[in-house]
Amino acid sequence: MSTNFAIIGGDLRIIKLAKMLADDGNKIFTFGLEKAEELKENENIIFSEKLSKAIPEDVEVVIGPIPFSSNGVNINSPFSDKEISVRELIHYLNAKILIAGSIMPDVYNLANDEYVEIIDIMKREELAVLNTVATAEGTIEIAIANTNKIIHGSKVLILGFGRIGKVLARKLAGLSARVTCAARKEEDLAWIRAYGHNDTNINVLGENLGDFDIIINTVPHLILNRERMQYIKEECLLIDLASNPGGIDKKEAKERGLKLIWALALPRKSSTCYNGRIYKGYYL
After folding, report:
1. What is the separation, in whole angstroms, between the first and last Cα of the chain?
2. How many angstroms separate the CA atoms of 165 and 171, rounded?
3. Which end of the chain has the lower number of beta carbons within 10 A, N or C?
4. How many Å apart are CA 112 and CA 3, to the nearest integer?
5. Burial zone of 42 (CB within 10 Å; 0-12 exposed, 13-18 middle, 19+ buried)
6. Using one digit for the tens of pLDDT, what is the confidence trace for 110-124?
C-alpha cells in the first residue's frame, strides 16, 4: 500500500530515506532538497517550488531534518539555498504529524497553536543507540586517518561514559587499544571497570593526560581547559564529539599546536545509507 509523504529539508540521511520510500512506491513531495541530484530521476519524487505546495491535503506525515534546526530560526536544509523558517513550516502543518529529530522545546509551543503532532525520533532509545554505532565507527575512522600510530596498543582516553562512550570504548578495545574511560559518577566508574576498561575520575585529570596518544571527548561542556591541556603531549590527537561549544578548549589547542578535530554530526557523515534504513524502519 503506497502512502504520500512530505519531506522538508534534511541532509544525506534524509535523501537516502526519500529514495527508499519512493522506491517502495510511495509518493514523496519535497521542499528544500533541490540540490539532491540523486532524487531527480525518480518519478515518485516531486520537487515543489513553494513550501505550501510540498504539503498537500492528502499528506498526513511530514518528515523533517535531524537535527531539526541549528539556530532555532530556520530548519536545517544543507541541500537548498532557501531559508525555511521553523515558524512558517509549522504554520503549514495544520493538523498533521511532524517527524524529525532533536526538536527544540519552542517548536512544541508553536505546534500546539497549529494542532500539529510532533514525534522526535531522537527521543526513541533504540534509534539513539543505533545512531551511536555510526558515531563510534566514524570516530575510529578519523583516529586511523589522523595518527601515525596504529590503534593496536595505543593509549586512548574517552571522556564520558554515556551511549557514545560505551560503544566507542568497546569497539576500540576490540582493536586492541588500551582504553581508559573518564567519568564523575561512582556508578559510571564501576561500569567502566565491569566492562574491563581502565577508569579515572574526570575531577582528577591533570598530569595523567600526558599518558595518552588519543583523547576523545563526548561530554557537552568544557573538560579540557587551559590548565589541563598543558599536560597533553604534542603528538596526542584530540577528537571532540560534543556539540557546541564542545568539551575541549579549541583556542588553547591551537596555541599549543595540538591536533584537534571537532567531529560534529558524525552519524550523517559516516553512514548515510545505514541511518536511512534505520529511519525508514521507523516511519513505516
Report:
1. 11
2. 10
3. N
4. 25
5. middle
6. 898 889 999 998 888
**Does residue 281 fall inside a structural domain?**
no
* Whether residues 150 and 257 fall in one domain: yes
CA distance 112 to 253: 45
Q: For the chain, what percentages of helix, strand and coil (3-state, to nearest 5) are there?
A: 40, 20, 40
Domain that holds residue 232: 127-268
- Total structural domains within the chain: 2
Q: Which contacts of 277-281 are long-range, i.e. CB under 8 A and separated by 24 or more positions?
A: 277/16, 277/20, 278/127, 278/130, 278/131, 279/13, 279/14, 279/17, 279/66, 279/121, 279/127, 280/17, 280/20, 280/21
**What is the torsion angle, in degrees rounded to the nearest 10, for the CA atoms of residue 121, residue 127, residue 129 and residue 133?**
-120
Condensed to tens digits (0 to 9), the pLDDT of residues 22-50 reads 999 999 999 999 999 999 989 999 999 99
**Secondary structure (DSSP) of 228-240:** HHTTS-TT-EEEE
Torsion of CA 272, 275, 281, 284, to 10 degrees: -60
* pTM greater than the 0.90 cutoff: no
Distance CA 258, CA 267 (A): 25
